[in-house]
Amino acid sequence: MKDFVIPPADWTRDMGTPASRSDIAVTLTVDGIGVTVPAGTSVMRAAAEAGITVPKLCATDSVTAFGSCRLCVVAIEGMRGTPASCTTTVAEGMVVHTQTDEIARIRKGVMELYISDHPLDCLTCAANGDCELQDMAGAVGLRDVRFEPGENHVYARQNGAPNPEWRPKDHSNPYFTFDPSKCIVCSRCVRACDEVQGTFALTIEGRGFDSRVSAGMASDDFLTSDCVSCGACVQACPTATLQENTQIAIGTPERIVKTTCAYCGVGCSFDAHMRGETVVKMVPSKEGKANRGHSCVKGRFAWGYATHAERILHPMIREDYRDPWRVVSWDEALGFAAGRLKLAQEQHGRESVGVITSSRCTNEETYLVQKLARAVMGNNNTDTCARVCHSPTGYGLKTTFGTSAGTHDFDSVEDTDLALIIGANPTEGHPVFGSRLRKRLRQGAGVIVLDPRHIDLLDSVHRNDAWHLPLLPGTNVAVLTAMAHVIVAEGLQDDEFIRTRCDWDEYLAYREFLLDPRHSPDEVARASNVPADLIRQAARAYAKAPRASIYYGLGVTEHSQGSTTVMAIANLAMLTGNIGKPGTGVNPLRGQNNVQGSCDMGSFPHEYPGYRHVTDTETRELYERVWGVPLSDEPGLRIPNMFDAATEGTFRGLYCQGEDVLQSDPDTTHVKRALASLDILIVHDLFLNETSNYAHVFLPGSSFLEKDGTFTNAERRINMVRKTMTPLNGYADWEITQMLANAMGAAWDYTHPSQIMDEIALTTPSFAGVSFDLLDREGSVQWPCNDKAPLGTPVMHIDGFVRGRGKFIHTEYVATEERSGPRFPLLLTTGRTLTQYNVGAQTRRTDNLVWHAEDRLEIHPSDAENRGIRDGDVVRVASRAGDTTLRALVTDRVAPGVVYTTFHHPNTQANVVTTDNSDWATNCPEFKVTAVQVSPSNGPSEWQEEYRAHAELARRILPAAE
């Protein structure tokens, strides 16, 4: 694999203004060079296409043209004056001159004015070498400034008196500094906040000389304002007004390595700006096809965990989980782990051990972990954290469409006329996609939100039609089936699509099922608390939209009817023909960076890579030939089965890579008992996490900055992860798994992850054309990538479904066994927040704690008043499974009878109260419905006290031997 490093001169190419999407071509001449561009293109961009750079300050290709700096003026034959090239669009036959004597004088005069009101500390400025103002002064040939020093925005005092226009630097944000003295009021930061992020946190206050950038009200700073720290303003700033603190501290970067974010399932591409092996900053890549040059606070800034002081860098072992840890060599740790695993199998049978892998690991790493189980341990006891999040997606979409993945790429959102959002909060959980969706809503698309909470998308500026169906947790199936009932009853279905693309007889049976009065909005309203007329309005809006898309998240899958809900979603799309064309589709928003990939790689106990069942003889024989060992045709244990078997004494050993099951899985008390029952628990991770409290071996892992490989995002996009630094622990994660396999008797000899991908391509039809060389050339591809689609498949099911004809499934609503009642009258549902990620192991070790230092319980004012609870009070949350305490947040974002919390902090441990109820098809836990009681509390629960005591005991590390 070639070293994908970009020299400084080629870091970025700013075209000045956004590209036009017109399919009409226009030809013009710029400085004697003919160029053809789409109609609507700016003269500035046309010049850039011809290889000619027009000086600019207020223009950048991430936001619409503004035309305020007057540096980009040009001469156009037949046009009076010198128009701004950024706001002037091309015309057929136009003749443009970008450099004349008059234009040179204008530009130099403009630059003089800017420089006269700007600090001249270039030698010590953090933006030195990366400052557009500095570059443009050189570009226009400015050598002298004629203006005498006078009143300006730079100095605190002029003529001995305080300058009221001067403001100090704003250091409130932990990641960047705002220096108003260096602001040229180009408004790029304001426009980026408005147009790219959609937060509208920044504004220009004042007029003329008094104009300045303001973050919110006069009393606000960047931390207290509505700013979400996405970094769009920092990226857009042409001076050192907004500057990353890391660049201020470290200096100007010297090279770039392209890689992929290791947080959510959007899969943002980043340019890691490096000095040596030190990351200076992470800048979202303009070439990134998932993020299109945008980012969120996590990917942009929260990567410091990779070098955090709490990271474990040496292997450790102990005989009993109650003993202190002992630091040992890699050979001793791997020998100890392998010996214990083999002993467990000798004493308790081949099926007594297994593996769990993580969606935070690369495709190549998860492929090796499932191979470890199947080819070395000799069983199919392999599972992944997708079990507890999106396993119903795989089951539901494979049943209805024939493939276990989303149908469309993220770009498709730009063509949607209506988005149905169910069980997802994109601006919090998938913020870069959330920004793209919010932008489409501002352009006029409608939105339907099915969620127990009021989410931010409902407050999108300039939104048109919006419907919020605040259904009770657990009633997704009922409401979606009622919407389908309305569509069929009112004749809004797409008969042509159904006849040509689906099984007509199955549809007729499904239609009869739908028209039963029990599925009518009036009946469903009783169970869901959603008014019948609101269900009808939403159904009509979805069915009548020219192009409607569905996006869903864990609020769909983490239910006892998670798989049924996914199939109900697929039914809606097929009923209305909203599949297989841009702006439509069924799109699961995967929670973690490689949820899709971990499923693709065969991490489930019943499937090989590519979703082929272990009982399929042809597939099994293929792997037996490639791996050189006989393989079992008996499906293995799922994660819940492993825990049950452990408490029963039949499952004795577990290798857990990158997954903190004690914090992330339901019914924490049961998980704790299971882990404590094991003879050997191997935790492979960056930090001593909650699961490691019961481990016997700790293998230190490597971060995404220290490895090569691939992630597959929620749109099936395979992105490269590239190493920026030498692994601090000595090895990449794939190497550690290989060493463990070889310690158990295997003879694996991979020398680079590209070889693992070659094996994946050899054995997996949907990855048949994928290689590191292809990804280096194309940037990314979306599977299936094979002979039929050598560059991948952005939109699936265009001419037909993978399974042949789409399959309608009867979606009978079956109420969850978890019911509220006199003892537990409230329903608890859980979710995520913008600044923290999953169990918080990474983000809690960054400055993101400034925004979310603890999990809090959202409770409606009426429920709080009835219990004597005030905002900020410590409350006890109790369920049939357990209890915990946390502080209350009184808010009307939740409906009466519903409470909500996040699960990012282990000292709260929301999963202590969640039950072992799960999806009927996949065992995905029912995190979203737990009956609870909330009451005032004086302090931590008994469980919390026990946890703290044990965690302190379990994390003792003996001093290293001399």
Automatic annotation (TrEMBL):
Domain called 4Fe-4S His(Cys)3-ligated-type: residue spans: 102-141
Keyword terms: 2Fe-2S, 4Fe-4S, Iron, Iron-sulfur, Metal-binding, Oxidoreductase, Repeat
PROSITE patterns for this protein: 2FE2S_FER_2 (PS51085), 4FE4S_FER_1 (PS00198), 4FE4S_FER_2 (PS51379), 4FE4S_HC3 (PS51839), 4FE4S_MOW_BIS_MGD (PS51669), MOLYBDOPTERIN_PROK_1 (PS00551), MOLYBDOPTERIN_PROK_3 (PS00932)
One cellular component GO annotation, for this chain's record?
oxidoreductase complex
Which Pfam families does the record match to this protein? Fer2_4, Fer4_7, Molybdop_Fe4S4, Molybdopterin, Molydop_binding, NADH-G_4Fe-4S_3
Gene Ontology MF terms in the entry = 2 iron, 2 sulfur cluster binding; 4 iron, 4 sulfur cluster binding; formate dehydrogenase (NAD+) activity; metal ion binding; molybdopterin cofactor binding; NADH dehydrogenase activity
The residues covered by the 2Fe-2S ferredoxin-type domain are: 24-102
Q: Which GO terms describe its biological process?
A: formate metabolic process; respiratory electron transport chain
* 4Fe-4S Mo/W bis-MGD-type domain ranges (all copies): 254-310
**What InterPro entries does the annotation carry?**
2Fe-2S_ferredoxin-like_sf, 2Fe-2S_ferredoxin-type, 4Fe4S_Fe-S-bd, 4Fe4S_Fe_S_CS, Asp_de-COase-like_dom_sf, Formate_Dh-H_N, Formate_DH_asu, MoPterin_dinucl-bd_dom
Protein origin, superkingdom: Bacteria
Where do the 4Fe-4S ferredoxin-type domain residues begin and end?
174-205, 218-247
Instruction: Please give the family membership noted in the entry.
Output: Belongs to the complex I 75 kDa subunit family. In the C-terminal section; belongs to the prokaryotic molybdopterin-containing oxidoreductase family.
Q: Which PANTHER family match?
A: FORMATE DEHYDROGENASE H, RESPIRATORY NITRATE REDUCTASE
This chain belongs to the protein called Formate dehydrogenase
